[in-house]
UniProtKB/TrEMBL annotation:
UniProt keyword Metal-binding, yes or no: yes
Signal peptide feature range: none
Keywords: Lyase, Metal-binding
Xref: NCBIfam families: PRK05692.1 (NF004283)
Protein name: hydroxymethylglutaryl-CoA lyase
Gene Ontology terms for molecular function: hydroxymethylglutaryl-CoA lyase activity; metal ion binding
Amino acid sequence: MPEAVTLYEMGPRDGLQNEARQIDTADKIRLVDQLSDCGFSYIEVTSFVSPKWVPQMADAAAVLAGIRRKPGVIYAALTPNLQGFERALEAGADEVAVFASASEGFSQRNINCSIAESLDRFRPVLQSARTAMIPVRGYVSCVTDCPYDGPVGPEAVAEVAEALVRMGCYQVSLGDTIGAGTPETIGRMLDAVLARIPAGRLAGHYHDTRGRALDNIAVSLDRGLRVFDSSVGGLGGCPFAPGAKGNVATEAVAAMLHAAGFETGLDLDRLARAGEFAHRLRNPT
Ligand code: HMG
Ligand code: MG
């Protein structure tokens, strides 16, 4: 039996959050519905953040209300604080994710608080999620480089990742937010994190700004990681990370994994059609 690798699909959230043109809610729903038929077990649908900060995600509840829910698929959303969690719960998110940074500069620009303050905000989210029996994933951004502070030390990443696991996140996704990581810097970062957290509780979230994301996935596979985040068509970027391009393309990761003998459960033909649809959303003619 081939070994499985799971791809968490980020397109509707990380992929679309940076779009300047407001995309119709109905089109976002169509994208999620197409992705539901591709074989994913996790789709990050939207985020319950401040609509003043990220207007593109203002229709989060309407998107979750409109999608066709395929059994076996987790429909997840980002929640930066308790207010976001309560909105997500009411809208029927199956799972939520809190998001921290390993660098102070990005933490301030992205969520308007220090790293320590962000962790304090997440604790009540984790408590409420436990009561509501909603699993919580954690992100750490800027795991090798920060657009404001420059290079980020591996120990800073390990510290924040460990704090997220300790407060109850079932998994921590390690974000190369601006795609500046290389196999060497990602490898050093992973070694520090793996000294504290087993590979089975980690995921790689690599943006492909400089075309190194597949190489970074390869070094992560070597170290035992089996979950990666990707966006159909390589969509995306972060509004608070200047120059950040999209997540690594799901199609490219799936092709690489299949060629290496891993199983993803994804239907590449359907994925290609979803990718074309996603590109038309960004570039309407
Ligand atoms: P703030 O302004 O400091 O918040 O923003 P506040 O608590 O002072 O509240 C100010 C106003 O926002 C209030 O409204 C609140 O009600 C409202 P007002 O009284 O002025 O009318 N508010 C909210 N509204 C809706 N939903 C909420 C919410 N919270 C407060 N949840 C905050 C702090 C975190 C909210 C803000 O900075 C924010 O929304 N940031 C969004 C950042 C974001 O979405 N970034 C992109 C996603 S992260 C990412 O892409 C990285 C990742 O992909 C991994 C990687 O690549 O590294 C995950
Ligand atoms: Mg991202």
